[in-house]
Amino acid sequence: MMKPVMSRILSQNVKTVSRKERAAQPVLCCGLLLSLLLLSFSSSALGQDDPLFRVVFKNNEVFAGKAIRNWDGLGKNPDLDGRALADPANPIRFFQNLTINEIKPLTAPYIELTNGDVLPGKVLEVVEESPHTNTPEHAVVSLGGSVHSWLAQEGTVRIRFDRIRRIVLAETTNGDLRPGQLVLIDGRVVPFTRHRFTASGVRVLNDEANESAAWNEVAEFYPAAESILTSEAAILDDLLAPCPTPDSRLGRITTDDGAVLTFREAMLVPERSVNGMPHHGVQPTWALDIIRVNFAQIAMISFREHNQIALSMLPARTLAESSATGFVWRWQRDRSIRNRILASGTAVADFGVGSHSYSEISFAMPMGATTFSASVGIDKSVDRGGCVQVRILRGAEQIDQNPAWQSGYLIGKQEPVAVSVPLTGFQQVVLVTDYGHDGRPAGSDPFDIRDEVNWMAPLVTIDMNIARQNDLALEYRAMQLTGWDIAEADLNRFQLGMWFNPAQGRWITSLEPKQQEAYEASHVVLTLARKVTVSEEANWIPVSLTGSGTGANTLVA
Question: Model-level pTM?
Answer without folding.
Answer: 0.84
